[in-house]
Design goal:
There is one protein chain. By secondary structure, the protein is mainly alpha-helical. The chain has one domain. Helix content is 69%, strand content 0%. The protein is built from six helices and no strands. The mean pLDDT is 84.
Length: 115
Amino acid sequence: MSRFTKFFKNAFGAETEEPALYSEEDILPERKAELIEKFAREIVARRLSVPAILFLETVKPLSFLGSQAMVFLEPIIQSVFAFKSYREIYLLLEKRENLELLLQEIEKKEQENGK
């Protein structure tokens, strides 16, 4: 089968190689911890801890609306930037508990950098 034929065979298919994620519960706990740790590490590495903590504490009550805005903007953002974990991130941000975990991880990383 030629490359051209392979492309058009699945060009309009809805199936993906990755398992479908529909809620935060679909994300494995190890993956959830990994995403939060990576996100916190990047924030601390860019020296944005204070603005990030201030922003996250401010928008915590609106976390669900923010995640839904990310869902709405997904086609635009994914066409410009190919984030593999974009869907996982907006599913995590739906729950305030995960924002609190992110805040704690940022503070922990900041403490580690201060020592």
